[in-house]
Amino acid sequence: MHVSSYDSFSRLPAADWDALTTGATIYSTSGFLGVREEELPQGASGHHLLARDGSGRPVAGLETYAFPRPPHLLYTPADMLAGLVDDERHARLAARPLAIAAGWSEFRGQLPGRDGVTPPERASAVDALTAEAFRFAAEAGASVLAYYYLPREEALEVARAHADAGAVLLYHDVETVLPVGLWRDLDEYLAWLPSGRRPRARREARAFRDSGRTIREVRLPEVVGEIAPLNSALMHKHGHDYDEKRAATVYDRQGRYLGGCSTLLLDEDAGRPVGFALRYRQRDMLYARVAGFDYSVPNVADYFNLVFYHPIAQGTGRTDRAIHLGLGTFQAKLARGAQPRPLYSVFVGVDRPLDADETRVRERNRTGTAAFGAEYGQFVVGGLNTDDWLLDS
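and the corresponding structure tokens:
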């Protein structure tokens, strides 16, 4: 298996990359690769890797990045490995550069592949890609190579490929997905919900309808100026220093690369924008990316109407399989029908093995999954058994 490396988005054959649809999400498309390249912090570098078969056809792809310091608080290997490696090794992790593969933003990693390849071909491609990622990490002087927020099967693939280097595989977080394809309209959705939850959903949908507010579907590039203050307001509400100019820059960039697959729901009160929900469409999936609201006006369950009730009522499930809702706000999402999917991260020592305590790793994974089940399992429609999420069963 031959690996081609492209050190800039402009050199990447986007058609070859986007032909890798198995295991792909909107966040693994060439459009988001372009966004991430423009967002790289100073001193960071990246390579896009394509594994090709003997005929030159792409089999699988992998993003690789090197950073002098973590690009985000939630992409900090030293935090994840605290208590699992010895103190000297832990201090070294925090002091050295790091490498991140399979994406470093949007809290979703992936190794997209070509549809129809055999398991041995896939394994060979993953072996070749991860070996090249390890080499890149070593050249960057990294102490650790991290693969963040992977679905289970891809995390296991990566861990197996790095087994000789002592890869550490950890349960990390949970993404939620609304199975909108189950319902043709709001009545079917309400009938599917447990009886105790239907009255609240009906009240929320009715409150929005009675308010007179309307929802209009537009493309992102058309409304960057309108949504920037709404997104800034949401970020400030959650304690982030995120002004309107920064928001406009972020969504102008996404509009340039991803405008064609964007579908934004604009919440208007007498023609005035008071909320929005930005989604991206990829094949039969919608990806709910971000929202924002005007907090000077009364809240009439705007978020739940934009993200849940309006798309369901409009019959989104007739064309789309699911709406990907990302991480966080678990109780609110699960109580309204979203389903949880565990995500895992893999860490590999580059300068030397991490020598993580295997017993502590197993216990960390067990207590983490059990804690999620104890706190949120009661809200999952159909129930939840987090024993299925364990990696050593």
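(Above: one complete record from the training split.) The first strand starts at residue 2 and ends at 6.
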